[in-house]
Amino acid sequence: xxxxxxxxxxxxxxxxxxxxxxxxxxxxxxxxxxxxxxxxxxxxxxxxxxxxxxxxxxxxxxxxxxxxxxxxxxxxxxxxxxxxxxxxxxxxxxxxxxxxxxxxxxxxxxxxxxxxxxxxxxxxxxxxxxxxxxxxxxxxxxxxxxxxxxxxxxxxxxxxxxxxxxxxxxxxxxxxxxxxxxxxxxxxxxxxxxxxxxxxxxxxxxxxxxxxxxxxxxxxxxxxxxxxxxxxxxxxxxxxxxxxxxxxxxxxxxxxxxxxxxxxxxxxxxxxxxxxxxxxxxxxxxxxxxxxxxxxxxxxxxxxxxxxxxxxxxxxxxxxxxxxxxxxxxxxxxxxxxxxxxxxxxxxxxxxxxxxxxxxxxxxxxxxxxxxxxxxxxxxxxxxxxxxxxxxxxxxxxxxxxxxxxxxxxxxxxxxxxxxxxxxxxxxxxxxxxxxxxxxxxxxxxxxxxxxxxxxxxxxxxxxxxxxx
Length: 469
Hints:
25% of the residues lie in helices and 28% in strands. It has helices at residues 54-64, 96-109, 127-139, 151-161, 170-183, 204-213, 245-252, 351-358, 411-420, 450-468; strands at 10-14, 33-38, 76-81, 91-95, 117-120, 142-145, 165-168, 194-197, 218-225, 230-238, 266-271, 276-281, 288-293, 300-301, 309-312, 315-326, 332-337, 342-344, 347-349, 364-374, 378-387, 392-393, 408-409, 431-434.
């Protein structure tokens, strides 16, 4: 039986450059050509035909040149919605300039190029996925699309297509590490050369495992937000061509002994090119709201007249909603979100700072710190804890000593641990709750839904009080 080759219908996409070569193009020589889409036709006007000929194609092109174009106001390119961690998602209107600046920054810092094979692990409805995709597109790289993130599917794509770059959030990295650990040898992962992490800090444990699984990969982190068209700062967490993982973590970690005065919080690196940052401090501590301005900043929230900007001396700055400081070397240190701030006894407590300390305990897999109403303090600090591996929770004993309680944790033990790590007294959680579910609630981009955790904590505490009455 003779095999018959069936030609698939062909789609032709042209832009204004078509004027230079259309006379040499013979559409009749391609029987499978069925559709033509002109990038110069206004949105909403059909540009598809069946049975194209060169004559029809040329006439339509000449006609499209005289079309009056309609542009979105202020050079708006897309409306991208926030992840909605502190409320209802808002539509952020971003300009062409913002997307270009962000793409160029990622090409310069991450190093995307025409030889890259980029795996789309993040959804294209979020700014992280969009901005990295456009950067790779601008650099001329190859794109590998998967329906949604799944560790097994992602690993299979890495092996099959020899993926060189991808982006993650901490939850994605944890899933990849877990998958490779179960599988054994990371066969095929040596093709990965660049991994950009956003949406939260990676733990020391995850960075160490990632460096082993992707031995040739440069691991970077980015801090940013949708309103700033993605990344504001970048930082290299691990570079396989330089020192060992442990040495680099010591240099880039939360504690840097080279600084005379140790800044608070977590270092998120230096600002990206063309990104201007400043801190609006309320006192002499140099800690305050992180502001930014430049062509990367949003045009505004879709459908809202009042936008998230601060008018300082007549200058238009975007208030990121984050609290932090900038050290003498230009590094940005992130302390926490202003909206997630806990006001306890008149003092400010930022959950992220407490969580960073708790994550250093070998028995703590992850934690979420929230503030709950308190009649005396205003709010009291509560930590929800997920345990690692074979660790067990025993809050019945008031003895904080761990000498005879190997692999056991309690609220007293963790309070002592926080004090040993020199966490200020009012920041140490007054209450610890074991989180018995598999995961903390997160958004589609992997960010913790702190508001939901807080509601569940308050509900749990209310039930405990009711049971004692």
